[in-house]
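Hey all, sorry for the wall of text incoming. These are the two entities for the joint prediction.
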Amino acid sequence: MTTTQVPTPARTAQTPPVKRPKRQREGAAWVFLSPWVLGACLLTLLPMAVSLYLSFTDYDLFNSPNWVGLRNYTQMFTEDPRYWRSVGATLTYVVIAVPLQLGLALVVALALKNMKRGRAFYRSAFYAPSLLGASMSVALVWRALFNEGGTVDNLFGTGGWIFKPGWALVTVALLTVWQFGAPMVIFLAGLQQIPGELYEAAEVDGASGWRQFLSITVPMLSPVIFFNLVLQTIQAFQVFTPAFAVSGGKGGPADSTLFYTLYLYDRGFVASHMGYASAMAWVLLIVIGAVTAVLFRTSRSWVFYASDTEGGVR
Amino acid sequence: MPGNRRRDRTRDRTCGSARDRTRDQARDRTRDETRGKARKPRRSRRAAVAAGLAVALCAALTACSGPDGSTSAGGKVVLRYTWWGNPDRAARTQAAVDLFEKKYPDVEVQTSFAGYDAYKQKLATQAAGGDAPDVMQLDYRMIDQYASGGVLLDLGTQQTVLKTGEFEPGLLATGKLNGKQYAVPQGRGTETVVYDPTQWKEAGLKPPADASAGGWTWDQWADAMRVLKEKTGKPGATDPGQSEDSFEVWLRGQGRSLYTKDHELGFTVDDLTRWWTFTDGLRREGVVSPAEQTTQLDGSVENTPLGRGKALSDMNWDAPASGYLALIPDGIALAPMPSGADGTPGQYFKPSMFMGVAADTGSPEQAARLIDFMLNDREAAAILGATRGIPVNESIREEIAPELKDFDKTIYAYQATLEGRLDTPPQAPPSGDSALQTTFQRDYDQVSYERMSPREAAQDYVTEAKAELRS
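and here's what came out:
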């Protein structure tokens, strides 16, 4: 008891000087945070605010912006047929690419989980395309592969896929699916968290492998599936580079790969309608927000958190 | 058990207080250090770190907004000069630039070029970012947009260096906006049907009549394409439906125009529907290139069906047609554009391209001197020939005419057959036209891929064009 009380009077006597180091530490924290805080303010928040303002103007990059009210938004919805084609292309892409990519990632993760030797090697090997795939160069290689007279055409006589409206979108989607590395690694981590005794118990009860997958793996993995689904959906809505490179910046043929962001870029930087492009960006933000919200709502009925049933409540 | 627990707790408390003590001692030590002499250096060190960070940040922020273009390197003025065009134009331009650098050793010219579509995109981005090249090649469609946007320098301020006295006045005026000379034309061009005479001969076709012999109408042109298709199995031409330029020629042949004087659309949905029905019909017959070929057009001759050996003719401007020579070993010939049913010519002489100077260039005088050299120097003119069309400097045009070689001679002769037979050119297109040119091509994609009827696509285009021209 006495030992603990010895420093106490000293501490009370010296309270004011004790506070100072604390403030100094806070100051230091701000100094170290400043690159991030400044970056967030100047490079994210400020441009966002400006873009919101510009979306109500006719800004054309060269002349000072004039206020036009909601005209950009009404034009988008009523006078721009290509806008709707870009919306259609984007939705088709999201619906094709995301499930395929997640499915492939899950299959590969399951295969890797049961692998005894060489898992680290294969994990890296499968992850590599995700590192490479985001780059322009791989997208250009992709264009060359599926071009008229390209490798795929020569091997299978398919013709130039990138010039066929139905197939061009598939070509771009394949490039995305091939980059399944990031969700795969997350799936793998999730799979390793599932307690082995669940499978042992199921084994004892005589459950088949498929049954175990449906009744143990899927429910136990559902939070991870949900996480990947949300993340990949958000990313898919914003896809730009592969479509830009594969279609040579045009979103062709017949606007079949004219994804939302590609059309946004076209409006902003090629046609010099920055105000209109800003309006498009805000609509995209709202739509992605809404889709994410819907995913979260549905998640209540299919995502299973182990903590919900702790103590056998459910 | 209770004893044990109590002992544990005691130990815990002892441990805790021991930890407290060490922490307090440490704090005392710090306080001692902060007090007195030790304190100042510490604060100044922190200030130094903060200042260093601030400087680094400022550097990072300003790095991309520094003054552009002309910077002195080793006492030399550096000019950036960009253009679009085929490799032949690039080689000749580079040779002329080398000569310029020899004559003016204090100037270094950094050149770059690209195909038209890529160039258009890149220049728009550069200009928007305040990073336009010092000297740039411009299209008729770009002048209104860039001049009214303050991107271009008023070349009237450089009259002493850049002489325009010998230019054809009508052509020179096409580079003016609100009375100021923002760009100077580099050459005079017109559209043409480029064809492969050897293959035409093999198909048993006579070469089309030149304009002095009455030329040909759109119907006669279509019939010739049908013969080619029948005899050679290849489409006779690139599908002209995708080209706003060809549409304009067709429209003018009927006495109408792309735009009215007030910068509104000069045609209706019905007009465009008729044009696209005509070309789409030919495409369905296999007489002009299929959609997969047409969609690959990007403004370079290499990617035209004629250049790829997939068709036997193409509609293009006369100057860039020289690019086909490298691709078609047997050589090419030029025919006039088809005319209206009553023989009304649709094509016109147009300033083929312009040169302009960035308003924020660091060395306007040197930039103007480079333009003056490219357009008025005799040696440069001899090197450049007709790669950008027939020269606009009239005395140079007459001087070099007899010296013209090879394809330049062909272009000169072709333009001579049209001299005095064409209607006056339309006024400069509105600034939205540059974007509409692309929209036109993409909307026609919907027709040639059979996703829309000509009428549906025409309705879309007119809607988009009206919105574009309003803004």
